[in-house]
Amino acid sequence: MSDYVFGGADLVGEQREAMQRCLDPITFARLEALGVGPGWRCLDVGGGGGSVADWLGRQVGNTGSVVVTDTVPDGLHAGGNVEVRRHDIVTDDLPEAEFDLVHARLVLLHLPERRRALARMVRALKPGGWLLLGEFDCTTLQVLATNDPDTGAAFARFHRALCAVLEQAGADIEWGVHAYQAVRDAGLVEVGSVARADPWPGGGDGARWLEINSRQLEDQLLRTGPVTAGDLDEVRSSLRDPDFVVNSYLTFSVWGRRPDDGGGQVTR
Ligand SMILES: C[S@@+](CC[C@H](N)C(=O)[O-])C[C@H]1O[C@@H](n2cnc3c(N)ncnc32)[C@H](O)[C@@H]1O
């Protein structure tokens, strides 16, 4: 199984919930723009807490269906037209030319074999089917407002350490920027992208997510060097203070369509 940095971490349930509250509105708007509707057959890769699969299940109705996968599928909900599969997108096969939509959010970023996984996802698309990725550029997390400049410096050290831990585990911390090229290289057409960042004030879902990450990865963060236990305490208390505001990661939605001719060009 691949080395997903949060795989064995505590607080995973809370992490998934905060993540979903931050990102679902962005993802659902993008899926609506792609036209997801009744009758579609959808695949959500690395579905985590299952919110996207559940939403897709409602959108596609009785005539459609959803397969949602994860290496750790304990947060996913099977039932109705939603099927859950334990599946590793790096190593396990997928059916080919099967889905009208393949979606993955914050999965490929973490996987060193992301291009191979992407190629597998592309082959799972029907001719004319859509791929949608939701990915971060992790380098953009910056303090927007604080009453205490020292806290801003501690946060910067925390952020540097977090990026280092992700990279040591094989993540591409700028994958949000690189994904467009990868989707085009994978043979998809009508490739598009939109990126946004939102303020994450202390006490909100984004800040809570970061605080959870600081606890999940505490040992690894401290081992990287720049951040101290005192910094982490300070960062955690700032992340509960509404006057402390950070800019979220830059969040990219990247999409593309498998050519209607059957996609002879898609990469293997
Ligand atoms: C950051 S979470 C994102 C969860 C969900 N996509 C979301 O955005 O709410 C990454 C998810 O990918 C899963 N994952 C990690 N490596 C995977 C792999 N090789 N194949 C499938 N899923 C994987 C993890 O278990 C986790 O649920």
Automatic annotation (TrEMBL):
Keywords of the record: Methyltransferase, Transferase
Domain of life, per lineage: Bacteria
Gene3D superfamilies, per database record: Vaccinia Virus protein VP39
GO MF annotation terms: S-adenosylmethionine-dependent methyltransferase activity
Domain (Methyltransferase type): residue spans on this chain: 43-132
Membrane-crossing residue ranges in chain numbering: none
Gene Ontology biological process terms in this record: methylation
UniProt-recorded name of the protein: Methyltransferase family protein
Species this chain originates from: Pseudonocardia endophytica
